[in-house]
């Protein structure tokens, strides 16, 4: 998976298509990410000794194939490529403007 925490992404399919947000969590084994403000679901909390039961809204994971990274230069969605820098380290770059993401 080419996404990291803190990347700005746009949703390309699903109920939140067109919305943008930052990645808060990545779930590499499931190939999913949690994006702030995207895929909001309601979760029912059972009452226990200290707290009464309630319904909270939280962000659920979304599959990584349903998001694309936002190009820092153009502000449009783009794919991610890989390149090496001057020190020989592998870095992520955008395909549209060849901007370094790391």
Short account of what is shown:
The chain is an all-beta fold.
Structural commentary:
With 102 residues, this protein is mainly beta. The protein folds into two domains: 1-70, SH3 type barrels; 73-102, no CATH class. It contains no helices and ten strands. Strands 6-3-2-1-7-8 form a six-stranded antiparallel β-sheet, with no helix packed on it. Strand 1 (8-11) and strand 2 form a beta hairpin. The protein starts with 7 loop residues before the first strand and ends in an 8-residue tail after the last strand.
Question: What's the average pLDDT?
Answer: 95
- Class from secondary-structure proportions: mainly beta
First-to-last CA distance: 15 Å
Name of the top-level CATH class of the largest domain:
Mainly Beta
Strand content: over 45%
Please name the CATH topology of the largest domain: SH3 type barrels
Cα-atom Rg, whole angstroms? 17 Å
Approximate shape: elongated
Number of helices: 0
> What low-confidence regions span 5 or more consecutive residues with pLDDT below 50?
none
Order of secondary-structure elements? EEEEEEEEEE
> How many β-strands, per DSSP?
10
From the coordinates shown, what is the CATH architecture of the largest domain? Roll
Question: What's the story with the biggest beta sheet?
Answer: 6 strands, antiparallel
| Count of domains | 2
The neighbouring-strand order within the major sheet is 6-3-2-1-7-8
Helix proportion of residues, in percent? under 10%
């Amino acid at each position: 998976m080419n996404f990291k925490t803190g990347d700005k992404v746009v949703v390309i399919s699903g109920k939140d298509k067109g919305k943008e947000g930052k990645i808060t969590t990545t779930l590499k084994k499931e190939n999913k990410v949690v994006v702030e403000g995207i895929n909001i679901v309601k979760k029912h909390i059972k009452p226990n000794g200290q707290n009464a039961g309630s319904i909270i809204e939280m962000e659920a994971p979304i599959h990584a194939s349903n998001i694309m990274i936002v190009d820092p230069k153009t502000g449009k969605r783009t794919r991610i490529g890989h390149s090496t820098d001057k020190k020989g380290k592998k870095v992520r770059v955008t395909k549209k403007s060849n901007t370094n993401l790391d």
